[in-house]
Specification:
Elements: H1 2-18, H2 31-44, H3 49-59, H4 67-75, H5 78-95, E1 100-111, E2 128-131, E3 136-148, E4 153-160, H6 165-172, E5 181-183, H7 191-198, E6 203-204, H8 218-237, H9 248-273
Parallel strand pairs: 1-5, 5-6
Antiparallel strand pairs: 1-3, 2-3, 3-4
Helix pairs in contact: 1-2, 2-3, 2-9, 5-9
Length: 274
């Protein structure tokens, strides 16, 4: 555990140095420590910043910082969180020799659907979406994600809950390497999307619907798709009952931290086995 924490902190610190994201000269705690504390909160405390902060201060894991200052500084690191995820994802893509990926989305509720009209965090009709796997509506965001056959995340894209998976795919799937093969469920069946991605050298290969010709690779595709389902299960298991935040901006930062934490854990796992 200690070895993992040291390794991840060093990775974060070296990354910030590589992009020349310097600390303020009057700051008593580095951005690396703030981001590491954010990782600790989502990875070990279900996103509870208060508990993570108290734990870190009690054990002197990082330099002293007031709780309110910690949350403000962490929220300002949103772009860095995305850049660090992108950096780790490029490592996964380089290691993925077969260049086969699976894509899907999972819902992230802001509140229970019964409270959509009274929620204070954010009110927008576009946030209401439908979760086909559970056959129920939800109110919140959708995380669209692409992972390798080893469940390593390489792309993610956050949208309002009502956005269809195909529509979102136009925005982020072109960022895959050329000659990639993307496996999706039946919801990704779309000739226009398939043609669009082919222009980037990417082959979309979703599961076939019942009214389509028999797919001889159906069993293999379903097996590959279990990777993205497992990734979603691991990420959402860290949420607790719901992601708690006092602003929509803070909510999104915490959501991205959950995704980054999973990415860092998968990188550590990969490095440990190699």
């Amino acid at each position: 555990m200690e070895h993992k924490m040291i390794t991840l902190f060093c990775l974060i610190d070296e990354f910030l140095k590589s992009i020349q994201y310097n600390d303020h000269p009057l700051s008593h705690i580095s951005n690396s420590e703030v981001l590491f504390l954010g990782y600790l909160a989502v990875n070990d405390f279900n996103g509870n910043y208060t508990k993570a902060h108290s734990y870190a201060m009690a054990l002197s894991l990082v330099n002293k910082i007031e709780y309110s200052r910690f949350t403000r500084r962490l929220n300002k690191l949103e772009d860095i969180i995305e850049q660090l995820f992108h950096y780790v994802s490029t490592i996964f893509m380089r290691l993925n020799d077969v260049q086969v990926y699976s894509v899907d989305s999972f819902p992230v509720e802001i509140c229970k659907i019964e409270r959509e009209k009274s929620v204070r965090l954010w009110q927008d009709s576009s946030m209401k979406g439908y979760n086909a796997s559970k056959k129920r509506y939800f109110y919140g965001f959708k995380v669209h994600m692409c992972v390798t056959t080893d469940q390593e995340p390489v792309l993610f894209y956050i949208t309002e809950g009502s956005m269809h998976d195909v529509t979102a795919s136009y925005k982020f799937l072109p960022n895959l390497p050329q000659n990639s093969i993307v496996i999706g469920d039946k919801g990704y069946v779309s000739n226009p999307l398939e043609t669009f991605l082919a222009g980037f050298g990417i082959q979309l290969s979703p599961l076939h619907r019942k009214n389509m010709p028999k797919d001889n690779e159906h069993g293999l595709k379903r097996k590959i798709r279990k990777g993205v389902e497992t990734a979603f299960s691991v990420i959402t298991s860290k949420f607790g009952k719901v992601i708690k935040a006092t602003s929509i901006g803070g909510f999104l930062v915490k959501l991205k931290l959950f995704i980054l934490a999973y990415s860092l854990d998968m990188l550590f796992k990969s490095l440990s086995f190699n």
